[in-house]
Each structure stands twice: as C-alpha cells, then as structure tokens.
C-alpha cells in the first residue's frame, strides 16, 4: 500500500507500491471507516503520525536487585615475548597445510559406527602416553571429540609456569581439530576458544630463552582455532 501524496521516497526500493490510495481533502480522523478504502485512509493517517525512530529512557536502577544472569567478560590475555609470535606468512602456510590435511583425512573416513561414549576418567593419561589411532578416533561422535578437547583444556591448568604441552597430547589436539565438523555450535566454539586462551597463557609463562619446540606447537593451535575456525579476535 502506498498513498499517492507520499513524496519522501521511503517506499522506493524494497518497499513496492501495492495499492494506489489517495487521501481525500475532507478526511475526518474521528470518523468510523465504512469500507475498505476508508480504513486505508485511517491507516495512512496513523502512519503519518508515527515517528520513524522511537527511543525510551529506562530507569535501570530498579532492575539491579532482580538480575538473574550475568555475562562474564573474558580476561585480557597476557602478551607473550615478541620473539614467540608467528609471522603472517607462517600462519598462512600452516592454515594451508591444515586445510589440505583435513580434506585428505575426511576423504579417507569410512562410514560406520558413531561411538557416543569413551573412558573419560582415564582419557587424559591415555592422551599423554599414546598417540591417537586413526581407525579409533574417527569413530567417535562430534560431542565425544569436544569432550576430549575439554578434558585436555582442563588438564592444561595443572601445568606449571615454564611447562608446555607434551608432544603426544599435542597430536590429540591436532587430530581432534582436524576431525571436527563445521559449522560449530556456539557451545563448541566456546570450547575451542578456551583451549586457545589456555595455550596463550602457557606461552606467556614461558621464559624468553625457551626452545622453539615448546612454543611453536602453541602457536599452531592458536592459529588454527583463530583463523580456520574463525575466532579472529584470538589471533596473533
């Protein structure tokens, strides 16, 4: 619907004219519509009295004692030593390698059972002492793989300053990231973000003269989560 007297152009573009309605010169806003045409006259009249943008001032003080949910802001991460930070070229190369590897791995996965549970009580010891077996890890469901990642993330809290992620544990992280199906749910994204933040904290607590083998894997996990899984605010 569009009244023929409208000249502000607000109905040009995506709002197309449906009906040609001309407002009468003797229109009485207090009258009761007797037919469809008169009803449209009243609609046009009421629309002309509405502001295009309406705001309201809210007294928020009365809600302070009734708040039931609070959003916890993520803590600001401590920056690592500058010599630990990867270059843009390095990150581009690693994302390409990861993408190619993911494509290859997913092309080799056979349709089969989708295991929905595992021995989570003993998983961290298994991950610290054994590398993942392709035929085994590919059979687990998405939720199982995320749970594995959460267990690993929680374990990282036990590392002391100067310690980093063990090689075998790192292979589990890389394998799980490789096998995750996208798009991820917000809850799964949160789990990835927690892992990246823990890796960043571990890296920040390494001494400046530490060996590359301790911080380069951390750079890799942060890079994959930040860039490949589109959590760009966490990128280096």
UniProtKB/TrEMBL annotation:
UniProtKB keywords: Cytoplasm, mRNA processing, mRNA splicing
Cross-referenced Pfam families: SIP1
Gene3D superfamilies in the record: 1.20.58.1070
Location in the cell: Cytoplasm
Keyword Cytoplasm: yes
Protein family: Belongs to the gemin-2 family.
Subunit structure: Part of the core SMN complex.
Function according to Swiss-Prot or TrEMBL: The SMN complex catalyzes the assembly of small nuclear ribonucleoproteins (snRNPs), the building blocks of the spliceosome, and thereby plays an important role in the splicing of cellular pre-mRNAs.
Name used for this protein in its record: Gem-associated protein 2
């Amino acid at each position: 619907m569009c009244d023929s007297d409208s000249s502000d152009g607000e109905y040009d573009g995506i709002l197309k004219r449906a009906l040609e309605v001309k407002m009468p010169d003797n229109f009485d806003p207090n009258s009761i519509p007797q037919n469809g045409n008169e009803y449209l006259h009243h609609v046009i009249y009421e629309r002309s009295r509405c502001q295009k943008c309406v705001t309201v001032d809210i007294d928020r003080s009365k809600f302070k004692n009734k708040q039931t949910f609070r959003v916890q802001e993520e803590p600001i991460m401590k920056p690592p030593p500058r010599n630990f930070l990867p270059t843009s070229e390095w990150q581009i190369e690693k994302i390409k390698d990861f993408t190619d590897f993911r494509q290859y791995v997913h092309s080799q996965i056979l349709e089969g059972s989708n295991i929905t549970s595992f021995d989570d009580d003993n998983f961290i010891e298994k991950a610290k002492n054994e590398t993942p077996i392709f035929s085994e890890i590919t059979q687990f469901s998405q939720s199982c793989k995320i749970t594995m990642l959460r267990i690993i993330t929680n374990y990282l809290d036990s590392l002391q300053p100067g310690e980093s992620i063990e090689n075998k544990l790192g292979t589990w992280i890389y394998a799980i990231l490789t096998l995750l199906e996208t798009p991820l749910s917000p809850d799964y994204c949160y789990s990835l973000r927690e892992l990246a933040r823990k890796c960043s904290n571990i890296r920040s607590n390494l001494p400046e003269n530490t060996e590359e083998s301790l911080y380069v894997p951390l750079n890799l996990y942060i890079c994959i989560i930040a860039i490949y899984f589109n959590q760009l605010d966490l990128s280096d």
